[in-house]
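are you around this afternoon, could really use another pair of eyes. what follows is a protein written twice so to speak, once as letters and once as structure tokens for the fold. i want to understand how the tokens follow from the sequence so walk me through it. anything you notice is useful, everything is just below.
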Amino acid sequence: MDLNCVGVFMDRDGTVSKEIGYVNHASRYELLPRTSLAIKKLNQAGIKALLATNQAGVARGYFKEEMIGEVHAKLERLLAQEDAYLDEIYYCHHHPDVGEGKFNKNCNCRKPKPGMLLQGAEEFDLDLNKSYMVGDKISDVETARRVGAKGILVLTGYGRGNYENDRDSWEVKPDYVAEDLHDAVEWILSHLEKRDQ
């Protein structure tokens, strides 16, 4: 299989980084253990590593949009220290019910709507049927399902609590439940190898 057409979309808070609620200052932002190693493995395999994150704190007035850029600059610096990188960062700063002006919008990019994945597929010529979405909420899995991608739930962030308390009521089921992003990437690489046989 040509891995150039494969993308791994990752949620941010609770998946790539620690879940601390709304990140209203870059100093509060910290990667989870093994995140850099996981993303580096994607880089080395030639698989696109893409962030897809809802950031409605802007619409809610908790911080200005510039803060998202500052946090993502820190994220990229932290990854670079371990020779890892993201191919692109997508974020949705909209909310359908709160906010003013351009931020108050019923958009197609707020997960579980698939707009960020569709944008990534278009920009990088990805086959979403061969791609993956990793996140700590079942809505991330639902986002994957809407475009035919595989959805992986990580037990970091909100994942473990959601899995233990809510899974019987889920309308969609994860393709895999991973301890963390690194575990998810290991499963993805193994899954791709099996697909190729």
The mean pLDDT is 92. The longest helix spans residues 65-80. The first strand starts at residue 7 and ends at 10. Residues 3-196 form a domain with the Rossmann fold fold (CATH 3.40.50.1000).
